[in-house]
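haha ok so turns out i had the wrong file open the whole time. this is the CORRECT one, sorry everyone. sequence first:
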Amino acid sequence: DERNQALDTSVEVVERWTDAYLKWDPTDYGGIEEIIVPYASIWTPDIVLLNSAATNYEERLLRTNAIVSWTGKVTLLTGAMFRSVCDVDVSYFPFDTQNCSMRFGSWCQDVTKIQMESDYNATLELGTYIESQEFSLESYKAEKILNSDPCCPNPFDNVNYVILMKRRTFFFFVSYVLPMVIINILALLAFLIPSESGAKVTLGISAMLTAIVFLMTIRDILPPSENMPLLGKYYCASICLVSLEVALCVFTVSIHHLKDIRLSLRIQNACRLLAKLTCMKEPRFHNVILACESKRGKNEFSDGIRATSHFGGRLKSSRRHAWKGPFKPMSKEPMSSARDLRSMNPFID
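then structure:
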């Protein structure tokens, strides 16, 4: 349970100890060497899960009868549903590995009264293991530790089981990683949409909103932590890139609709630089006539011919509208009549 920082396990606890008061001679009792008695009728050690995350400890234990041998050896089998504290590290989610521990020990009897040992056998204990759909068990081990407590001068003997689990990533890759990769690819396709279409900006905004929804989804399944998961970093980077893509689309659409406004030299140089970076060629025009504004608000052609402000800007002649008749040099006299203006139409695009 990553959200609550806990590990839920269903285990069988086998406790064995020797009680000197439960010894007998089998010859005195008809050869009886083993008996089964209720656990409440004999002494049992107060072994508990010390790092428990549950509040109703007694309700999760299924006490059974104890098996007592004539040598005084007592075996107690307990079925339990344990909920232990586990420090979940989601820094590399969903490619993470979790290391959890279950620490067992006596609650009030120190090492001078109870000494614990572990008969750890990986082959025997994993025989009844049922695999989880979310995690795979990589390894586990048992270790004996001494734990000091301020209440008592002597330490307490504990047995700590360390469990190493690895998350199965296929489900999370298909559900969270792959859709975001597809969304990023679709967002890049917005640059191929013509500027006349309104879907150029809409596609980028839709991709950004979808990424935000996915980010909110993983927030509900992960615990609040100062370490942002790897998937969350990927989502944040995708949102930033898609936002930049939307801003560039808005910029290109706004430039496209500036038909009657002459762009500044800086914007023209920026567009030329972007064209070189994207391996695009600049359009070539035939018989290009450039006009620049004078301080008095009038326009003047590059060769000194005066013109009205109606012909200001960039004038060009393309192949499609090229004049097929004989070319006659234009006079450099000012164009004052409407007839002179109409004579210029075949040369103006």
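The chain has three domains: 6-168, 171-256, 284-347.
again sry for the mixup
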